[in-house]
């Protein structure tokens, strides 16, 4: 680690889920193992990048050789990403919870058998990717988002790229039956300003290596 085409480059990678508390013992979250994010951070570091790895509570441990910033909620993730800037590139692999629970309880909510059920009110979380993509001078030169789709992958990813204002979208088909969600392999389509490129199904580590190589080419 240290030497390579990304030597001297600083790259922020978000990974894992976020947890949004309901009370001190309960939360809502998206499903995310953090496997693709950890693999990508490892691949970028292997090419010499200084990686700031901003991770929610993931199942997969962070790779060696990266600077780890642990967060729990989307708002903490946003703050950690902002604190990590400026950077040459930022890659958003995290599965951020779209909503948080308004007025999370400070004490454990007591279960009253047969009694009133708790009512949750949600608030929208910040969109970290869209926020960073819209920054002025602090905007990384390359901003990459991920998109988990179950249909019309290219059309949806292209629309997402426009909506989020990022440079690339890495889209994957997570339809039931693909075994991709939580599995060892991924099949991605890379959407850039030049169009969409579908890669064959391959191990997540290889997707990470290919993406890291593309990022290195682009930042060169
Ligand atoms: O809108 P959607 O969740 O499908 O977008 C996915 C992309 O946006 C991912 O790159 C994800 O990390 C990022 N994202 C984010 N903050 C959010 C929601 C999504 O950074 N609140």
UniProtKB/TrEMBL annotation:
It catalyses: (R)-4'-phosphopantothenate + L-cysteine + CTP = N-[(R)-4-phosphopantothenoyl]-L-cysteine + CMP + diphosphate + H(+); N-[(R)-4-phosphopantothenoyl]-L-cysteine + H(+) = (R)-4'-phosphopantetheine + CO2. Its EC number is 4.1.1.36, 6.3.2.5. Residues 6-217 form the DNA/pantothenate metabolism flavoprotein C-terminal domain. Keywords: Decarboxylase, Flavoprotein, FMN, Ligase, Lyase, Magnesium, Metal-binding, Multifunctional enzyme. Residues 11-220 are annotated as: Phosphopantothenate--cysteine ligase. Catalyzes two sequential steps in the biosynthesis of coenzyme A. In the first step cysteine is conjugated to 4'-phosphopantothenate to form 4-phosphopantothenoylcysteine. In the second step the latter compound is decarboxylated to form 4'-phosphopantotheine. This is Coenzyme A biosynthesis bifunctional protein CoaBC. Its cofactor is Mg(2+); FMN. It comes from Rhodosalinus halophilus. The chain holds residues 179 to 398 of 398 of the full protein. CTP binds at residues 98, 108, 126-129, 146, 160, 164. In the N-terminal section; belongs to the HFCD (homo-oligomeric flavin containing Cys decarboxylase) superfamily. One of its GO terms (biological process) is pantothenate catabolic process. Pathway: Cofactor biosynthesis; coenzyme A biosynthesis; CoA from (R)-pantothenate: step 2/5; Cofactor biosynthesis; coenzyme A biosynthesis; CoA from (R)-pantothenate: step 3/5. GO terms for molecular function: FMN binding; metal ion binding; phosphopantothenate--cysteine ligase activity; phosphopantothenoylcysteine decarboxylase activity. GO terms for cellular component: phosphopantothenoylcysteine decarboxylase complex.
């Amino acid at each position: 680690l240290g030497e390579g085409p990304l030597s001297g480059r600083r790259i922020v990678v978000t990974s894992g889920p976020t947890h949004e508390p309901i009370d001190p013992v309960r939360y809502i979250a998206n499903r995310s193992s953090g496997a693709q994010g950890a693999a990508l951070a490892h691949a970028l570091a292997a090419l010499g990048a200084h990686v700031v790895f901003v991770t929610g509570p993931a199942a997969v441990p962070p790779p060696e050789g990266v600077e780890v910033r642990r967060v729990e909620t989307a708002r903490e993730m946003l703050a950690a990403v902002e604190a990590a800037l400026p950077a040459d590139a930022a890659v958003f692999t995290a599965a951020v919870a779209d909503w948080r629970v308004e007025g999370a309880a400070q004490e454990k909510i007591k279960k009253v058998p047969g009694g009133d059920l708790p009512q949750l009110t949600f608030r929208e979380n910040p969109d970290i990717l869209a926020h960073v993509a819209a920054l002025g001078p602090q905007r990384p030169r390359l901003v990459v988002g991920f998109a988990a789709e179950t249909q019309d992958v290219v059309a949806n990813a292209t629309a997402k790229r426009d909506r989020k204002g990022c440079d690339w979208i890495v889209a994957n088909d997570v339809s039931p039956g693909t075994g991709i969600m939580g599995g060892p392999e991924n099949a991605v389509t890379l959407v850039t300003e030049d169009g969409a490129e579908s890669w064959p199904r391959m191990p997540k580590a290889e997707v990470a290596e290919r993406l890291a190589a593309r990022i290195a080419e682009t930042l060169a």
